[in-house]
């Protein structure tokens, strides 16, 4: 595999600590702003070591503060005006100021902006690439990729085969059965205990493990096997971790052969991910963080803290009883490969602006007085949201909710309406909210109701701080459904679900791209092309996600400030492009012409921009 | 009243709030699923919070619409239980016949209900997972009703006792709670008692029918005789009734009329 990365020049002085105010200064509209001496010096002479990459990705690296490390910033917090500042005749400054205003709202995002917008010698080139991030003519794109065409090694390899026909990474070299067996239970010890060796053998065969243990060394949860079976291993893990703890040098991760171990410590909990699936430390840490928020969501932070402060040797598996399936389904979605987790963003159902507006209006019209958040979700994709002005929703919280509602069977299989106490750590980790969940049957024929697939199921999720509000929420649901039936919204949702995600060739006819992920940074939402037909199977989808994981890790690796990453390999060409506004990742066949790739990528970006209000929820219904 | 008559003539209908309580994994949701959808899922995932379902049950003289609160059995949800059993007219306290600790938990629930719930609440004690015992599918006799005055109940006790002895001799029987133990407890506390299998469906509908019959008509605020469509809104019926349940009536009312759902 040969890779060619192009990183832009960077200013070592701009780091994550740069205050908001700075980033809001309209540098770019005042290009004459004097460079300060220190800066111009440093860009010439020897560079000091770069500070940790401070942009949105810093939450991947964030080791401090569990709240701060929530997966992403509020999703719908950005009002439409921020987005619409962008005009087609964007000048150099318009784009950057937009980005500053859009992203600057979150503390995490600020730094990256200040970095890109900082004044320095290379400003012209830098803003040029920003300007061309949504190129208006192809000439711009050519320019953008010109130099990199020169330095990239020849990619016309002999013997290349079809896209991802064989695994890019050895870790993915398994067939469908292999990946499916990953999720199978390893069985239980029989009464004589003579099958322990067999079970351990099966346990070791898993490619991915998650283990949660208390600081006192008690196993709390493990994805595979039970605590009895693996207690020996938990003891080893505990010993290794505490060895480093004792010397005040916290263990973050280590490798053994092709296996990567990543440790995350939160309060009295150690969360350990063990992976042979080519995931980066940051990606694994993000997954552990999500598991931790699931625990918080079950218990709340104060009660978790209390349990361990009263008795450090508390067996947390008891209070967590019944939520194991939530942890497992979350873990499995990571193992299967989740664009949502990779990008720390949400996916929305693509629907016409006016239809979304109609649904928003219905939500607002029927809003119950004790409602906090109201969500309409179609198979894990958000259709519409109603929320109070001062509270936005956090993608991390929504990930937990969607996992609970759509992935774990506990809610859906019940067949009725559910009323669930849940703590949303991103909203407030200290108390419970109450969530009403009702699934809608929107299909024409209600005969085979058992065969609703996950992607087809539509749920109304209404969240209230009042634990007695079930019947109020039920009333709102009834009114909402009636409204949406009357104004045809239900039919529109059904149509949108049936349409599915577009294929890349629907967007750009004849494109070389086979799949893409596009994340809108301001909206903290993403959109992607259809998995079908090429990536429908679990294996191929896993391979695709490995490509994306790899691409994402390369782009967001510490201390690199790559804007474009082009990676050529035997089985695929992958291409990543990061601007202050979006992140675009795409996959094409091996031997794909670089210009064709670049043109397609920019067409995708243009398409997303054109369809923005259909693809993303901008603001949502606010009361 | 003949069956055909009851089917043709519009019957008054009324809502009954029913709550399911019991230790985790005894099969509460499975009982409900069997009753509401006549369905069973192996390895069902634990309920989170509580689920709300409705199902109609047709009696000879009226239709009962059950509003069922299927609660999660985990300890951490216990503090929410009062919200669900408050104003409930009926409760199903479920234990697992293969797990003695679950009966202990059930007794706690019964005590709590008797202390805190509406005075007129009809409580049924249900031992689930009968399919795991040797008297699996074919025993409906074992699930006698715990009527203090009923001779038949005593017969049932004896029968169950004999069975227990037989079971002990046969290996592969997972039963750990004898029918006799549970029956005598139910008798003491004045509870309806059934042993069920949500998996095979044994006795499930019978439990709900028995409850429907045990709810005194006086506690059902129905516009009697005004025909169909008089079903009250759920809110209207949720208020507690103080009238005591006369469990003695149940036997006559149950008859052979099943639940038509």
Automatic annotation (TrEMBL), chain A:
GO terms for biological process: autophagy; protein targeting to vacuole; vesicle-mediated transport. One of its GO terms (cellular component) is Mon1-Ccz1 complex. It comes from the Eukaryota. Signal peptide: none annotated. It is a peripheral membrane protein. It is found in: Endosome, Multivesicular body membrane; Prevacuolar compartment membrane; Vacuole membrane. Residues 1-64, 110-133 are annotated as: Disordered. Residues 370-481 form the FUZ/MON1/HPS1 second Longin domain. Coiled coil: none annotated. Residues 36-47 have a biased composition (Basic and acidic residues). Keywords: Autophagy, Endosome, Membrane, Protein transport, Transport, Vacuole. Residues 513-612 form the FUZ/MON1/HPS1 third Longin domain. Its main location: membrane. It holds the Pfam family Fuz_longin_1. Residues 208-330 form the FUZ/MON1/HPS1 first Longin domain. Residues 1-26 have a biased composition (Polar residues). Belongs to the MON1/SAND family. Required for multiple vacuole delivery pathways including the cytoplasm to vacuole transport (Cvt), autophagy, pexophagy and endocytosis. In complex with CCZ1, is required for multiple vacuole delivery pathways including the cytoplasm to vacuole transport (Cvt), autophagy, pexophagy and endocytosis. The MON1-CCZ1 complex acts at the fusion of vesicles with the vacuole, through its regulation of the SNARE complex during the coordinated priming and docking stages of fusion, and particularly at the stage of tethering/docking. This is Vacuolar fusion protein MON1. It comes from Penicillium egyptiacum.
Automatic annotation (TrEMBL), chain B:
SUPFAM superfamilies: P-loop containing nucleoside triphosphate hydrolases (SSF52540). It comes from the Eukaryota. Residues 140-151 have a biased composition (Low complexity). Gene3D superfamilies: P-loop containing nucleotide triphosphate hydrolases (3.40.50.300). InterPro entries: P-loop_NTPase (IPR027417), Small_GTP-bd (IPR005225), Small_GTPase (IPR001806). Residues 136-182, 220-243 are annotated as: Disordered. One of its GO terms (molecular function) is GTPase activity. Coiled coil: none annotated. SMART domains: RAB, RAN, RAS, RHO. PANTHER family: PTHR47978. This is Vacuolar protein sorting-associated protein 21.
């Amino acid at each position: 595999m040969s890779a060619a990365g192009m990183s832009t020049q960077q200013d070592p002085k701009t780091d994550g600590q740069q205050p908001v105010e700075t980033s809001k200064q309209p540098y770019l509209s005042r290009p004459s702003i004097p460079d300060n001496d220190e800066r111009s010096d440093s860009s010439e002479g020897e560079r000091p070591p770069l500070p940790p990459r401070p942009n949105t990705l810093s939450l991947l690296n964030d080791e401090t503060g569990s709240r701060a490390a929530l997966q992403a910033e509020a999703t719908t917090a950005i009002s439409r005006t921020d987005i619409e500042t962008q005009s087609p005749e964007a000048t150099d400054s318009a784009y950057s100021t937009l980005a500053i205003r859009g992203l600057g709202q979150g503390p995490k995002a600020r730094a990256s902006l200040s970095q890109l917008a900082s004044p320095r010698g290379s400003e012209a080139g830098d803003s040029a690439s920003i300007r061309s991030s949504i190129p208006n003519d192809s000439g711009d794109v050519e320019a953008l990729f010109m130099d990199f065409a020169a330095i990239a090694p020849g990619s016309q390899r002999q013997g290349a085969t079809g896209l991802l026909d064989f695994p890019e990474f050895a870790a993915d070299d398994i067939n469908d059965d292999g990946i499916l067996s990953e999720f199978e239970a390893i069985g239980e010890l029989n009464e004589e205990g003579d099958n322990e060796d067999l079970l351990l053998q099966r346990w070791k065969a898993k490619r991915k493990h998650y283990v949660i243990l208390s600081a006192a060394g008690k196993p709390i949860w493990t994805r595979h096997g039970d605590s009895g079976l693996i207690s020996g291993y938990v003891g080893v893990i505990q010993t290794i971790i505490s060895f480093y703890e004792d010397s005040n040098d916290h263990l973050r991760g280590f490798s053994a052969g092709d296996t990567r171990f990543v440790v995350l410590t939160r309060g009295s909990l150690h969360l350990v991910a063990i992976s042979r699936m080519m995931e980066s430390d940051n990606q694994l840490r993000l997954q552990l963080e999500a598991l931790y928020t699931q625990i918080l969501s079950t218990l709340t932070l104060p009660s978790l803290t209390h349990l361990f402060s009263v008795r450090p040797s508390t067996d947390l598996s008891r209070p967590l009883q019944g939520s194991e399936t939530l942890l497992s389904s979350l873990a499995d979605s990571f193992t299967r490969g989740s664009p949502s987790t990779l990008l720390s963003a949400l996916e929305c159902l693509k629907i016409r602006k006016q239809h979304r507006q109609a649904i928003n209006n219905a939500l607002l019209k029927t809003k119950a007085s004790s409602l906090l958040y109201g969500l309409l979700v179609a198979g894990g994709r958000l259709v519409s949201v109603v929320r109070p002005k001062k509270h936005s929703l956090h993608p991390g919280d929504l990930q937990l909710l969607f996992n609970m509602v759509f992935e774990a069977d506990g809610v859906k299989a019940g067949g009725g309406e559910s009323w669930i106490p849940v703590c949303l750590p991103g909203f407030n980790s200290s108390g419970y909210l109450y969530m009403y969940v009702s699934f809608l049957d929107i299909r024409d024929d209600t005969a085979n109701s058992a065969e609703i697939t996950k992607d087809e199921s539509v749920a109304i999720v209404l969240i209230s701080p009042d634990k007695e509000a079930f019947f109020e929420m039920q009333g709102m649901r009834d009114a909402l459904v009636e409204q949406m039936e009357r104004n045809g919204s239900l039919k529109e949702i059904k149509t949108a679900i049936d349409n599915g995600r577009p294929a890349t060739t629907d967007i750009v006819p004849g494109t070389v791209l086979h799949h893409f992920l596009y994340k809108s940074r301001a909206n903290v939402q993403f959109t992607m092309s259809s998995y079908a037909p090429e990536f429908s199977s679990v294996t191929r989808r896993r391979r695709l996600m490995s490509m994306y994981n790899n691409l994402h890790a390369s782009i967001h690796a510490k201390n690199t400030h790559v804007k474009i990453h082009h990676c050529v390999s035997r089985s695929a060409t992958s291409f990543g492009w990061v601007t202050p506004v979006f992140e675009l990742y795409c996959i094409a066949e091996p031997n794909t012409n670089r210009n064709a790739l670049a043109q397609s990528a920019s067409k995708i970006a243009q398409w997303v921009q054109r369809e923005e209000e259909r693809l993303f929820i901008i603001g949502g219904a606010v009361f | 009243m003949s069956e055909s008559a009851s089917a043709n003539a519009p019957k008054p209908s009324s809502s009954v709030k029913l709550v399911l309580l019991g230790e985790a994994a005894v099969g509460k949701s499975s009982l409900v699923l069997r009753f509401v959808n006549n369905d069973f899922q192996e390895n069902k995932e634990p309920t989170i919070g509580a689920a709300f379902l409705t199902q109609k049950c047709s009696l000879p003289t009226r239709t009962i619409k059950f509003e069922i609160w299927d609660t999660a059995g985990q300890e951490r949800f216990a503090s929410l239980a009062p919200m669900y059993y408050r104003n409930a007219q009926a409760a199903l306290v479920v234990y697992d016949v293969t797990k003695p600790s679950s009966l202990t938990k059930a007794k706690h629930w019964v005590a709590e209900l008797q202390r805190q719930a509406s005075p007129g609440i009809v409580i049924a004690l249900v031992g689930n997972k009968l399919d795991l015992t040797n008297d699996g599918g074919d025993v409906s006799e074992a699930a006698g009703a715990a009527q203090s005055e009923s001779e038949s109940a005593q017969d049932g006790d004896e029968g169950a006792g004999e069975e227990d002895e037989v079971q002990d001799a046969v290996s592969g029987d997972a039963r750990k709670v004898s029918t006799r133990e549970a029956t005598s407890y139910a008798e003491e506390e004045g509870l309806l008692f059934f042993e069920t299998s949500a998996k095979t469906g044994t006795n499930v509908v019978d439990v709900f029918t028995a409850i429907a019959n045990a709810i005194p008509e006086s506690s059902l605020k129905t516009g009697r005789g005004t025909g169909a469509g008089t079903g009250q809104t759920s809110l209207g019926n949720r208020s507690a009734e103080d009238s005591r349940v006369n469990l003695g009536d149940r036997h006559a009312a149950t008859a052979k009329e099943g639940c038509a759902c």
